[in-house]
Amino acid sequence: MPDQPRLSIFKSRRHIYAQIINDLEGRTLAAASTLSPEFKGKGGNRTKADAAKVVGEILADKALKHEIRRVVFDRGGYKFHGRVKALAIGAREKGLTF
């Protein structure tokens, strides 16, 4: 939907990146990844899925600060499984709707 921003995901072998994009303006509204300073502050060893869930929570917190509550989920061609699913669960638990 053009009136809702898009939550886009990219994952590499070691990291996962997520951003909320306004496609009408071509702007990134919020972003988080396993390389973000907010993620580093959470500390501890985690599995990749646990790390993805934390990234989803961080992204949802940033989105809610910008009063973004609904997004369109763009899996980027990845299956809704593993890290992608964990990120979605983390974002939904913090209040993002998609």
Briefly summarize what is shown.
Helices cover 34% and strands 23% of the residues.
Structure description:
This protein is α+β, with helices and mostly antiparallel strands and 98 residues long. It has a single domain (6-93), classed as Nucleotidyltransferase, domain 5 (2-Layer Sandwich). 34% of the residues lie in helices and 23% in strands. The chain has 3 helices and 4 strands. The chain has helices at 37-40, 48-65, 83-93; strands spanning 6-11, 16-22, 27-33, 72-74. The chain has a 4-stranded mixed beta sheet, covered by helices on one side. β2 and β3 form a beta hairpin. α2 (48-65) packs parallel to α3. It starts with 5 loop residues before the first strand and ends in a 5-residue tail after the last helix. 32% of the residues are buried.
